[in-house]
Amino acid sequence: MQRNPSQSLPHPPLPPGWTAQWSVECGGRCERARARARRQVRWPVCGGSTLRSKRGWKAGRRGGRQAGWDPTVGRHAFIEAATGRSQFNFPFGSPLPPAQGRPTGAHHGSRASISGPISSYSPPVHGGGSGGPFNGMARGHVRAGSVANAGVPRPPGAVPIPQFSPHRQTPPVIEHQAPPGAGPGAAVAQVARSPPPPQPKLGAIPTQQQQPPPPPQPRTGRRQYAANTAAYIAGDPNLSAPSTGAAGGSSHSHSQSQSFFSPATGFQDPSANNNPAAGGGNFFSPGAQGAQPDQYGAGAAGAAAAQGYGVGGAAPGPGAAGFAGAGAVQGMTNQFGHMNLGGGQKVQASVSTTNLIGLPLHPAELMSMPPPPLQARPTDFHSHSYPTPQASFSTSETRNADPSYQRATINAVPTTNSLLNKSKLPLALVLTPYRSLKPNDPEVPVVSDTVIARCRRCRTYINPFVTFIEGGQRWKCCMCNLSNEVPQLFDWDQEKNAPADRYARAELNSSVVEFIAPTEYMVRPPQPPLYIFLIDVSYSAVTTGMVATAARTLLESLDRLPNDDGRTKIAIIGVDSCLHFFSLPAGATEPSMLVVGDLDDVFLPKPSDILVNLVEARSALESLLSRLSDMFKDTHSVGNALGAALQAAFKLVSQVGGKVIALTSSLPNIGPGALKNREDPKVLGTTKESSLLQPQTGFYKSFAIECSRSQVSVDMWLFASAYTDVATLSGLPRYTGGQTYFYPSFNAARSEDALKFAHEFGTVIADPIALEAVMRVRASKGIRMSAFHGNFFVRSTDLLSLAAVPMDQSYAIEIQIEDPISAPFVVFQTAVLHTTCYGERRIRVVTQALPTTSSLSELYANVDTIAMATLLGDKAVERCMQAKLEDARDAIMNKLIDILGTYKATMTSSGSGASPQLVCAENMKFLPLLMLGLIKHLGLRQSAMIPSDLRAYAQALLTTLPSQLLIPYLHPVFYSLHNMPKECGTIGDQGVVLPIPLPLSSERLERHGLFLIEDGQNIFLWLGRDAVPQLVLDVFDVPSYAELRGGKMTLPVLDNAFSQRVNAIIGKVREARRGPYYAHLYVVKEDGDPALRQWALSMLIEDRMEGLPSYQQFLGQLKDRINDKSF
C-alpha cells in the first residue's frame, strides 16, 4: 500500500510489535475490527498530525466521504456523500487537502499495511474503540507530536494549535454545524488522546500508600493468650492489616464509554503497568497505629507510669473517615446523574474476581462500603449552568437517591427475567423513606406551591430523570415515555408573583423531595396527633420501677411531643386486672380515676374527658404523671388485661386514627387476648422451638388488621422479669407500622436500665411521625413488585398501608421482571402519602434510576452487599415464621451456594469443575461473612441457651433496622483500646477519632488488653486477666483486676486522659448509629461470669462456636458443596 501523497511530513517508525492496518469491508463496525482498533494505529486521512480511525478510509466505498475545505473554521471537513454530514478533527487540524478516495492500491475487502513512517504513538487508553462518546467515530489511540506541522503555513482564520497537555485523557470536543453548501447534518468531532496519568481503576478507593504491606500472619493457636503477646499494631509490617481492592472491582470502560466490556478470565488492564494501585485502594492506612512502646503490657506494671500508656502510635492519616489512620475515601465520582441516559447503549464495567480462601477481610472496608458506583459517560450539557429545555436530566448532585433512603440489591437491572434467574441473584429495593437526620445531613426539600406534575398514564411524579420536549412545553415520562403537559404555574413563583427558574425547582434537582398535597389528595382534613398510653400498673410493673420511670420520662417529654399547631391530644389508661381511666377535663388541676372491671364488653366512661387536648389539660396531666407511681405503690394485682385495654384505646381513637403506646411488664393473662406461659426449656434448640416463635393466638393479628384499617398504629414496650411472649405481642406493630422494644430483666433500681429506657422512650415519643400513610413503589415498564417485607399491611397488590411511619424503619420490596427491557435505564419511584404530626398532608417521593444490562458479569459487578444482606435477613425471618429455624439457616446457605456456584461456573475458567478456590466478585467478598453472621445471629442460630423472647425480639430487629444499624448487628465492631494511637478518642476533623476495627476473631484478644465490641444494641468492654493495675485504675477507678465487678455498668469519667478518651469513644459509638437505641455497656472479665463471657465471645463471628463453623471452615464448606453440585 502506498503512502498518502498529501502527507509530505516525515514520521517516526512504529515501535516493535505495532502495526498499522486498515479495513474497509466493515467500516470498522464489526467486533473483530473494534478489537483490532484497540491495538492498531491508523494512517491519517486528513494529512495532519493525528492518525484517523478506520472510518476515515471509507471515502472510496459506496460514495464514502469527500474531503473539502471549510472556510468557516479554517480547516478541512470530511463530507459523507450519503448523509452530507461533515466531521472535523479539532483542534489538531491540517492545512493540506487530504487525498480523495481510498489510498492507492487499496480495494474493497482488502486489508493493507501502511508502509513508510507514521506519526508518533501512545499506548491504548480507556475510552477508545467502538465505545467512544461519538458512537465509534473516535477509535484512534495515537497522538501526534507537537511539531508534526512545524513549518506548514496555516490559512487565514484557522484555529491555532494549542500546546500539548501531557495529562489530558479527553481533549475538548467542539461540535460545528456545517455551512450552507457543505451538505446537511451536524458535524461530529473525532477525539485525539494522550496518555492518561496513573490513577486507580474505576471503583477503586485512593489511599496514601500505593504499596500495601503483607497481610497479617495468623496466630499459632485459636486463642493465644500470653502475657507478653505483641499487641496488634497497624504499623508493624508483620501484623498490619493489608490493603484490599475496592469493593466495586476494576473497570475497563471509563466514563468515556457506554459499551460493556466483559474481559475473559485472566484479563489484565493495559494501563495496569503504569498504575501500581490500579487494583484498588485502602480504606485505612496500615501504619496508623504505628510502632508503640509497651502500653498496659503484662510486664509493664512497674514501668507504666514511667513509659506512659495509651499515648503511643502514629497520628491517623489525613482524611481519616472516623477511624485512626483511615485513608481518604473518595466519594463516588461517576454518579448515574452524570449519564447521558438518552443514548441507545447500555453501560457496563468489568467484574473483578477474588479468591475468598485465605483472603483477609478488613472491617473498616465494610463499615465504609458504598453501593457499587453507577458507570456511564457524562452528559453533553454539563458545561451549561442549566440544561436546555431539550436536555434529558438535571445536573444536580442530589438527582439520584442516597443509599440511606433507597438502595437496590443490584445496581444494574437485567434486561430479562431469564438473565436474573440465571445469576441466582435476588433483585429488590431496601427502603428507609423516613430516616433521622444528623447535624450535617441535608434537609429534605419541600415543594410548597401545591403544583404537582404527574404522568397522566402511570402517575409518576416529575423527577430529575424526565425529558422536556417541544420547547419545554411538555415533558416525557421516564417510565412510560408518555408526553405530558407542563402545568401552567410550574414556572411561576407564587410567593414573589414573578416568573421562576424551572430548573431551580426541588423536584427536578433532588431525588428525595416532599410535596405539600392539595385538597384532592385528602379524603378528610388532616388528623391531629393522638397518643394513647397504656401503662401496666400491676405488681411487677410497680416493683421493677417501670411505672415510675415511664411517668417521669413522659412528664419530662411533654414539651417535646409534636404540638406546633396546638391540636395534639393525649390519654392515659392504667392496666392491671381492671382498666383505670383518668379523667382530665380542660381547666382542671387534679385528675380523677374511673375504674372499669367488665373486660368482656369494654365501655368508655366520659370519653371526652379521657382523650384531652395537651395544652388545655396540661395542669391535670402533670399532676397525674407526678403521682401515678404512688397511686399504685400498694397494689398486689398480678393480672394484666392488655387485650381489653387495647380494645378500649381503639374505641377511643378509631374515628380519627392515632398512635397507641403500650407498656407492659407481664404476660397478658386475663380478658381478651389472654396468653399462657408456653416456654419450655426442653424444646429450646430443637426442631420444636419454631413453634415458640409463632403467634400463640390469632387475637392480636386480627386486632392489628382492624387497627390498620382505622389508621391506628401500636408500639409495644415490653419489660420482662419472666416470659412475656414477644413472638405474639410483636405482631401488633408488625401489621400497624409500629415498633417493638424489649427490656429483659428490667429493674429501674439499676441506673443503667432506667437510663436506657428513658432515653429510648423519650426519643421515640418526641420524634416527628407520619400518620395515616400509604406507600406505593412504581417502576418502569416490564417491572413489578412481587413481595414485601417490613411492618405494614398490604392493602392491594402494590399498595402498602402504614398507620404510622416511624423514623429509621426499613422495608424491603422484591422485584420481578415480567417483560424484556429495551430501555438503557429503569426508574424506581417510592411515594409515601401521609399526614405530618403538624397537620399537613404531604407526599414524600424517592426516585432512583439504574442502568440496564444484558451481561451476566455486570450483574455480579454491581451487587450491593449491604442491601443484599438486608434482604436475605428479612427473608430468613419470614421463613422462620412459616417453617423451622433450621429451614431458615439452610435457605441462607443454599442461596449463598447458588450465587457463588453460578458465579464460578459462568465467570471463571474452571466452570463447573472442582476447584481448590472459592471465588466471587470483588464487591461481593463480604457477603459470605455477613451470611455467616446471620446464621450465627441470636435470632437464627441453633442453641439451647437462647430464650424464645430474646430470639423473637432479635428477629423483629432484623426486619426493621435500617442498613446502617443492621450491618453492625450482623457483623459487630471490634476495637483494641489499650494500645490505640494517642489520637484515638480525641476530636478530629470529623468528630471523635475511632481506632481501626479488628477482624472478629478471638485470636486478636490479649490477656493484658482492653477491647471494645459493639453491635449497635450492646457494648462490651473485654478486660484480660493480666491487665496492669494502672489500666484498671485509670479506666474503672478500681485498684486491681480482682476487685473489678463485671456486668452492666456506667463507665466513670475520671480525671485522666485515657479515661476521657475511652469515654469519648463509647459516646461516639452510641451517637454514630441512627435510631433511638441506646446501647448498654457491659464489662466482661476474661475469667468472669461464664454466661456474660460467652455472650461477648459470640460476637466474634469468625470463631467457631456452639457447633457452628469458623469463618475459614464456613468457606471450606461452601467450596466443597459448590464443587459437589452441578451448575
Automatic annotation (TrEMBL):
Residues 992-1064 form the Gelsolin-like domain. Residues 452-488 form the Zinc finger Sec23/Sec24-type domain. This is BQ2448_6770 protein. The keyword Disulfide bond does not apply. It comes from the Eukaryota. Residues 771-853 form the Sec23/Sec24 beta-sandwich domain. Belongs to the SEC23/SEC24 family. SEC24 subfamily. GO terms for molecular function: SNARE binding; zinc ion binding. InterPro entries: ADF-H/Gelsolin-like_dom_sf, Beta-sandwich_Sec23_24, Gelsolin-like_dom, Gelsolin-like_dom_sf, Sec23/24_helical_dom, Sec23/24_helical_dom_sf, Sec23/24_trunk_dom, SEC23_SEC24_subfamily. Residues 864-967 form the Sec23/Sec24 helical domain.
